[in-house]
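Translate structure to sequence.
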């Protein structure tokens, strides 16, 4: 117990005798103020906010986007890898088209998934969002990287604009390609 290790990919700590666990290390980026208005495809978090990736690595990525939509229509979110990944599983959910609602709201959220996707630019299009209202989108990605060096989180307002809101953020954690821990039957 008490050992701390690093194997070139993952940090480990043995908290109890014979129970080795991964120590999470993550990168993240958050907006501390509202972002720049977006109409045509652009980085949601700004030009120098891309997620750094290492070739052949595994990642768990979570993205929370809060934004104001100015004109009724759709928003296209594009997750752009510098190169097509080996595989990525994507789960996403978005506020109802009428805007965010307080619980126990009855409006239906958009929810979707992609399994074993290997496209360099994966897109998700919202429903026709109500204008002058606040919306959100959340993405969870399990990414097995091939040769890409970055992941861009981009948005396009099909008409009008969107304004990224303070508190929007992404976090990325590199995972070991191995199972870690002490497992029992």
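Result:
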């Amino acid at each position: 117990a008490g050992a701390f290790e690093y194997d070139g990919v993952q940090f480990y700590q043995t908290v109890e005798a014979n129970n080795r666990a991964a120590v999470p290390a993550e990168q993240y980026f958050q907006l501390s103020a509202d972002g720049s208005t977006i109409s045509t495809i652009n980085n949601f978090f700004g030009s120098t906010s891309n997620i750094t990736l290492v070739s052949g690595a595994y990642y768990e990525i979570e993205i929370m986007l809060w934004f104001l939509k100015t004109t009724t229509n759709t928003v296209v979110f594009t997750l752009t890898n510098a190169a097509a990944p080996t595989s990525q599983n994507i789960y996403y959910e978005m506020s109802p088209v009428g805007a965010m609602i307080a619980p126990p709201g009855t409006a239906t959220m958009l929810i979707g998934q992609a399994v074993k996707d290997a496209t360099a630019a994966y897109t998700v299009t919202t429903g026709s969002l109500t204008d002058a209202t606040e919306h959100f989108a959340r993405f969870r990605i399990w990414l097995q990287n091939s040769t890409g060096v970055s992941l861009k989180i981009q948005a396009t307002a099909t008409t009008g604009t969107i304004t990224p809101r303070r508190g929007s953020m992404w976090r990325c954690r590199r995972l070991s390609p191995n199972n870690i821990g002490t497992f029992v039957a």
